[in-house]
Each structure stands twice: as C-alpha cells, then as structure tokens.
Specification:
The structure is a homodimer of 188-residue chains. Chain A is of the alpha+beta class and 188 residues long. Helix content of chain A is 20%, strand content 31%. The first copy, chain A, is built from 4 helices and 8 strands, in the order ββββαβααββαβ. Chain A is globular and about 45 Å long. Chain A starts with 11 loop residues before the first strand and ends with a strand. The model of chain A has no long low-confidence stretch (mean pLDDT 95). Chains A and B meet through helix 1 and helix 3 of A and helix 1 and helix 3 of B.
Chain lengths: 188, 188
Amino acid sequence: MTRIYRPELHPATFVGGATGTWKIDTVRAVTGDALPRVERLEVRVGTDAGVDAAGAWILRGVAGHERYVERAEHDRLKPASPPLGRADAPRAALIPIRKSPGWWALSQDERRRIFEGRSRHIADSMPYLPRIARRLYHARELGEPFDFLTWFEFAPEHAQAFEDLVGMLRGREEWSFVDREVDIRLSR
Amino acid sequence: MTRIYRPELHPATFVGGATGTWKIDTVRAVTGDALPRVERLEVRVGTDAGVDAAGAWILRGVAGHERYVERAEHDRLKPASPPLGRADAPRAALIPIRKSPGWWALSQDERRRIFEGRSRHIADSMPYLPRIARRLYHARELGEPFDFLTWFEFAPEHAQAFEDLVGMLRGREEWSFVDREVDIRLSR
C-alpha cells in the first residue's frame, strides 16, 4: 500500500512512547477521554510511519489545503506565519480535537459563519503571530480517532500568549462543537 | 494500524483486476495517464481493504463532508439525490480526477467562486437528479494518485443524460484545473 503525498500535505505520524525528540511535560483531557501518559513524542514523516513503532499511542494527520480561509485573510496570515523548527522555540503543544456529528452535518457556509463570522478564529488568532508557529493536520478522513491535530511551537517567554490564544478559542461558539480534546505540552 | 471510520465517511477501495461485481466496459484517459485496462472492478469497504488484492490497480477514497455546498443548495440536493445500489441502475462510471497545484493554492472563496459562481457545478447538475446517483470520494489526503473519485450509477435509458452531465462539467472553467482524468465505464 504505497502512499505518495505531494510535499505541501506534510503527512505526519505522532508516536507517543518512551523515545523521541520531544519530552512530554503534561497531558490533560480537556473534553472526553485522555490519551495515556507517556514520556516522549516522536514526529515521523508519512502516515504509514509508526506502524511498527512501540508507542503507547499513534496519531496521524495530513496538513492539506485551507478549508475556511478566504484570499484576503490568507494574504494577511501567510507573511505573518513563522515556520516550524525555530531554534528559539523549544516549547510545543499538540492538541488533538474531534468535532461533533452536528458540526460535520453543517454546510460550508454555516461552518464558515460559526468559525469566523461569530468565533473570529482567524482574525483573533492573528495578533499571536509570529510568536506562535502552528500547523493544522487533518485526520478525520484517515480513519483516526480525532478530526484535527494542531501542532504549535513557541519560545518560553511566549508561553502566556499561548495560554491566552487557546483560552480565547475555547471560549468561542466554534468550540461548543468540540466533543473530544486533549492538550499535550512538550519541550525539547 | 487500525482505522476506524465514522459510518458517513463511506471509506472505499476500488480494486481493478480479474474479479469483481462490476464488468469494466471501457477505460479512457481524458487527461494525462490512463489506468491499465482490466476486466472487472471490486468495490470493498474500508481503505485498508485490498492490501493483498491481486488487482492491477487499487484506488482509495473517503466520502467525507460537503466542501462547497451551502445550506440552501444542500436542502435542494438532498431530497433529489437517490441512493446507490438501485436495482434498475446497472450502469456505472468511476471517474478519478486530480486537480492542479494551482487549484489547491486557491483560498476557499476563490475555489467556491470558480466551482459554483462561474462553473455552476451544483445548479447545473441538479436537473440530472434523481436519474444519476453519485458519490464523491476524497482521496488527496490519503496519499493517492488522484484527488477525487466520483462514482455514478444510472439506468441504461439515462446513459445519454449521463454523457450530457459529464460533458457539461468538462466544458466549464472548473475543469481547466483538472490535470489528470480517467473515465471508467462499468455494468453489472
């Protein structure tokens, strides 16, 4: 079963276990079931990676294309968005979430209206750039237990800004559709 | 590697080879490379199905949620859309397509404007319902060679209507972003 991904899709496998580049500092179940507490996280390229990994858990995702962002928003977001892997950003968060069947039954215009029109997901995240680097992985159509895996990287001095960002998002209407969320904090 | 799909995702593996429920009548490369000509097609449930299948080719897809359809359109489409598997619809078409990098680099509002605003993909497909049954499978994020696999079913007396439908879609601006397309016709 060969999978050939175009480079912009950034397929990734997150293996939680005894080894890996990232040290896991905390694992917190925000909504629904947690994931087993493990010591370290390894991030592998590809979604078939990790098949034989001795991990306590394995999560897969693919970055994909933009789902809700409009052109004018993209043109503001893109130049402000830093790359992953900055040497001065040794803190990370992996936040897997699942949205409810009710969310997925909405049409595109209804989801956009909640996501940005009322929850201002894009506009109110902008002020946190470029302090917080972010990559959104889609997982729903891979048959995964979560719909999205979001990976964040930031410097220790921006840890409070990161708390503010996730706190803001969790307080908005969009988050009422989240029926499972785990918050994993890491450092290297 | 266990994949657990929610039922509405309809994960499917299309195995082209010597066996299967569907007889392949024709295989035509519309744009780009064809697929090897085989005798029959088997459609299996799941995306890990077919790993050990002796097929000449294997294509996978997941139905997923609506990407461009708005609520008012959904409410017209849904009651007019017939199920797959109708006893009086023994003709089928499997049309795998890939869209260009230029398409995927567009933002959501730009893709919607081309898809429906200018190409009228939804509005001009409506008159073909309920004669043509259809299911769209997404494949891009599965690491597949195509982005979409569309499966159609219809009665022999609606074969010309089906030609009109695909001819209409291929003539529109949206289709200028299709850089690979294979048209497979089947019967049972």
